[in-house]
Amino acid sequence: MARSWILRSAVIVVSASLMGIATVLLFQNSMAFKSLLSSLISDSGATAERGIAYGSHERQQLDVYRPESGDESGPIAFFLYGGGWRGGDRATYGFIGSALAAKGITTVIPDYRLYPEVGFPDFVEDAARAYAWTSENLAGDGDKRRPIVVIGHSAGAHIGALLVLDRSYLNGQETAITEPAGFVGLAGPYAFDPTTWHSTQEIFAGAKDSDQARPVAFARPDAPPALIMHGLDDNVVRLWNMQTLTKELEGAGAKVRQIELPDIGHVGVLLAMSRPFRWRAPVLSETIEFINGPAVTGVP
């Protein structure tokens, strides 16, 4: 028994160390290095089409990850990464696209413009434009349109929640759009006031009022079903953000499920979707079950 306990403890220590190293490496400045790291922790069974333009700006490009077995039907995941509205690039998150595509879910990962080049609401409008491209080019038409689930982490979860809950962004697009069928939020700052917070007030100076930039202000009874997850060791975005959004959605009559993840931090909730760290938390399995479930697909 003692030997077994020692072995389990060693595995936990080594895994935690590797996750810490992966977290640091994931946010290095070299795009080539980040792409290499992403490929090392990615799943097989997926193909990628990269650098598709959804606008004229160099940041208005996206990558599409498809299952090797084919891409003719089934839900689509639309993933928005974080970075404090100041940083990030889609090449870093290929492991998310491959993890979902290997399970049969076509995944779109766009870049979007960042501060200081642009401020709020331009990055949300970029996300809406990329979503419109996804709807027009991948979702099909007629009665066989494929459901699209918006997934976001950190600042990307904030952008994704606004995209899903505030109809003005998608209603402002020029093409007919398949409305989001669901939302998966990971460690998102849904409830704080970015117009007064010291590190974000300049980014959100363009907001008409604080509620325009707060997803919780747009909770509505007909909101798409939501799955929201948050690590209990997250010291970057506090747990009350998830709890407040859940409370507001439930109060409005919308369908929402929240999951608190023990021993998981802010970046760990995302890395738990990658191959080496999947055992740390059921983020990927919960996401796939939600995307393929009746709330999204309409199939019992």
Q: Can you write the helix and strand succession as a string? A: HHEEEHEHEHHEEHEHHH
Decide which structural class fits the backbone: alpha/beta
Calculate the terminal CA-CA distance, rounded to whole Å: 45 Å
What ranges have pLDDT less than 50 throughout 5 or more consecutive residues? 3-18
Largest sheet: 8 strands, mixed
What characteristic shape results from the CA principal axes?
globular
Strand content: 15-25%
Mean pLDDT: 90
How many β-strand runs? 8
CATH superfamily: Alpha/Beta hydrolase fold, catalytic domain
Could you say what the CATH architecture is? Answer: 3-Layer(aba) Sandwich
CATH topology: Rossmann fold
The gyration radius over C-alpha positions equals 18 Å
In spatial order, strands of the major sheet run 1-2-4-3-5-6-7-8
CATH domain class: Alpha Beta
| Helix share, percent | 25-40%
What is the number of independent domains? 1
Helix and strand topology:
Blueprint: H1 2-26, H2 31-40, E1 46-53, E2 61-67, E3 76-80, H3 94-101, E4 106-110, H4 122-137, E5 148-153, H5 155-165, H6 168-171, E6 182-186, E7 226-231, H7 240-252, E8 256-261, H8 268-271, H9 283-291, H10 294-297
Parallel strand pairs: 3-4, 3-5, 5-6, 6-7, 7-8
Antiparallel strand pairs: 1-2, 2-4
Protein architecture, described:
There is one protein chain. The chain is of the alpha/beta class and 300 residues long. It has a single domain (30-297), classed as 3-Layer(aba) Sandwich (Rossmann fold). The protein is built from ten helices and eight strands. It has helices at 2-26, 31-40, 94-101, 122-137, 155-165, 168-171, 240-252, 268-271, 283-291, 294-297, and strands at 46-53, 61-67, 76-80, 106-110, 148-153, 182-186, 226-231, 256-261. The chain has an eight-stranded mixed beta sheet with strand order 1-2-4-3-5-6-7-8, with helices on both faces. Helix 3 (94-101) links the parallel strand 3 and strand 4 (106-110).
